[in-house]
């Protein structure tokens, strides 16, 4: 069996997914085939933040990929307005749900969520995109910082007290089960 057979099969499957509009499969196969730029370009063209998730492995892996994605979002926002209704992304009152649209702010928020707001800001500054970010971005980054601090305290607590604490919980659970 040729080593190229699985590669060719995946390429054919990617084309089939694309022709039928099965975008999660298409994006996933592009990433598997190491066609990341193609995957990100199509995600931005499709204007769907849902395709940028860890489930499909479509999160940018390098700072350069994040910069590329941010620039694609920026060029899209100057060319088009978000039309969330094309994919059925409307709220009951008829207003558009912008959270699913590919915008600079939504991509920047995803970046801040993945690498942390303090590491995301220099990337955004380097791309000269901070002027495009709203007060909402600033507020969410504050919340992310608080969450990071709580996680680090929880991690420290679990490292220091984790084993004895976990053992005491297991002992209590066993005694409760035995008493029931």
From TrEMBL:
GO biological process: developmental pigmentation
One Pfam family matching this protein: TPR_HPS5
Keyword Membrane: yes
Transmembrane stretches, start-end: 152-171
InterPro entries: TPR_HPS5
GO (cellular component) term, any one: cytoplasm
Domain of life: Eukaryota
UniProt KW keywords: Membrane, Transmembrane, Transmembrane helix
Domain HPS5 TPR: from-to ranges: 8-141
PANTHER family: BLOC-2 COMPLEX MEMBER HPS5, RUBY-EYE2-LIKE PROTEIN
UniProt-recorded name of the protein: HPS5 TPR domain-containing protein
Source species: Gopherus evgoodei
